[in-house]
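To whoever is on call:

I kicked off a structure prediction for a single chain this morning and the downstream step that reads the tokens threw a length-mismatch warning. I double-checked the sequence; it's 396 residues and nothing unusual in it as far as I can see. Pasting both halves so you can look.
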Amino acid sequence: MHTTDATDATDATDSAGERLRRWRLVLGGSEADGTGHALTGRDAAMDAALGALYGGPGGGRKAPGRTGERSAGLGGSAPAVARWLGDIRTYFPASVVQVMQRDAIERLGLSALLLEPEMLEAVEPDVHLVGTLLSLNKAMPDTTRETARMVVRAVVEQLEKKLSGRTRAVLGGALDRSARISRPRHRDIDWDRTIRANLKNYLAEHRTVVPERLIGYGRAAQSVKKEVILCIDQSGSMAASVVYASVFGAVLASMRSIATRLVVFDTAVVDLTDQLDDPVDVLFGTQLGGGTDINRALAYCQSKITRPADTVVVLISDLYEGGIRNEMLRRVATMKAAGVQFVTLLALSDEGAPAYDREHAAALAALGAPAFACTPDLFPEVMAAAIEKKPLPVPE
């Protein structure tokens, strides 16, 4: 056999072995998995971590070194769970760890254990974990609250770092463009629009355009002030949206040219505007779960509008209304008729298509206020379009 042939044969064997290894990890090692592949070392430890979460009677996965009935599991103690959380962070990337944490909370009912500091210190912080902690906020003992705030702050700071720069840039440009003036100072001339408007005055012999008419915009920080009201449904299904909206609220509030108000609601309405300098305080001021009264929330928001033509109201809700439906729709129609830019987001998250009340969404669309889900990456463009009174970039 030539050296090349031997190398190819070795590569093929290695490739086949790797495929068996991966299938063994996926299938869980029951007698019926058909791989006949034994795991050792790090692979055995990875399998044990998977088996602790996804194992169970009849499921086919066993803890390494065990025989017979499947016996892996996390049990009910915080130390055992904390050790498991440390293991999965060792063996899997952060994106996989976050999925496994969510599955553990949902499949094994570990919410109560999140109230224990040693467990919180072991978790990989993410938006979904923050939502779970906020839902447990009122039941959280004082010994855990500070640790929980540290977890929430880590996520908030990560989101602010990711979202704030682009949001300020996109909205700053929109505010400048929305304040165009016809006799601008030199530094305020919008040269692109000015050149386009004066192309008819092009002098070929001089290869220049004579700017007969100047178009400019006033600087938003000096001459324009928009009002934005974020009205956030804090029912349990909106947890991720509450987190993202609170972060965006803090970013908007940091822009001097925008007066930002943040309101959360279930069957009651709470104005958290005075806490916008710290989105962690905002989040711990929410209470996830409970009913929904959109009409009451919009009534409060409507009462705070002083300059309708310069106001954007953003309702973030799945539209499952527990209040007075027709009154809610009339209220939206009244605000729009007064010049308010009204935006309805069924979700503000990366979680995919949300569940929502389709009848209410259709009714809002008929009023010229289309309801749609929005990712955090798209939110700055949505707000920029609303500020400039342009059609919203509704995802297809």
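Update from on-call: the warning came from a stale cache, not from the record. Cleared it. Sanity check on the structure: The beta strands are 180-181, 202-203, 208-209, 216-217, 226-233, 258-265, 269-271, 311-316, 341-348, 371-374.
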